[in-house]
Input
Amino acid sequence: MAVQGVCTDLEGLAALWDGCTQVRARIREFRQMCLEKPAADDEKPSAGDVGRTVANLKFNSCVIEPLAKIMVEKGASQLIPCIMALLAEVKKVHEDNGSFMSKKDLKDQAWTVRYLFGVLKRLTYKDAPPAES
Output
């Protein structure tokens, strides 16, 4: 089922995440893919809520870049990722790494990925969107 403005086909994203040693390490150590960038005096990032900031986008580029790559490959670069499709891929990469979590925790991670993807889209969007012909 296609939804206007939403990319529902993210198949292969979990494999890209699983192929990244940084993502796998985060899942094993923190049970999360996206982490809050550590403050200047902290050495370790924090698990939990991740703010929608450019600093966090850069810190979590290992998660967001594969999503952007999949979206471009699927011809959906102008869309946003479907939360249910993201949830399925987040669940798969966690299961592949032996991290079984509650549906709520998985859903929270999927939303975090989508929020950070929104930060990327806002950064790359033109000041004036293209005029329709």
